[in-house]
Amino acid sequence: MVEIFTGWFSGLRAVLEILYYLSAVVLAFLAVIGLRQLKIARCDIAIRSKREAASLAALQHEKFVEKVFPLSNRLAAAMKQHGVLRANEELKPLTISFSEEASK
Predict the structure, then answer these.
(1) What residue spans of the chain are helical by DSSP H?
(2) Which residues of 64-92 are buried (b: 16+ CB within 10 A; e: fewer)?
(3) d(CA 86, CA 90)
């Protein structure tokens, strides 16, 4: 009877040993797949962050056009009305003359 268990156990041991060695190959394969998934996830995060940045830039541009641009136009009109020069306009040469009567 002990011989029956010994034969059966050695057969089971051989099968389990083969499964153990195959599991290392399967785990290595799964690790490669996992690393690939991490690379794909990293690329996806980069794409999503660029998309979000573009969306925020478009939103800020809309706010600029709605709020700042009209105020800038009003400021330019007021400066023109009061004769104030803009920064990109050239200044006319300044001439200063003194009279002798003013120095007395």
Answers:
(1) 2-63, 69-82, 100-103
(2) eeeeeeeeeeeeeeeeeeeeeeeeeeeee
(3) 9
DSSP class of 92: P
Query: Are 76 and 86 a contacting pair, CB within 8 Å?
Result: yes
Q: What is the mean pLDDT of residues 64-72?
A: 88
Alpha-carbon distance values, 86 to 14, 28, 45, 64, 73 (Å): 91, 69, 45, 21, 12
- Total Cβ atoms within 10 A of residue 34: 10
State the Cα–Cα distance between residues 88 and 12, nearest whole angstrom: 91
Is 0.85 surpassed by the pTM of this model? no
Q: Return the structure tokens found at 1.
A: 């009877």
pLDDT digits (tens, 9 = 90+) for 17-61: 999 999 999 999 999 999 999 999 999 999 999 999 999 999 999
What is the spatial distance between Cα 17 and Cα 19, in angstroms, rounded to a whole number?
5
Give the distance from CA 43 to its chain's centroid: 12
Tokens of 48: 């999503």
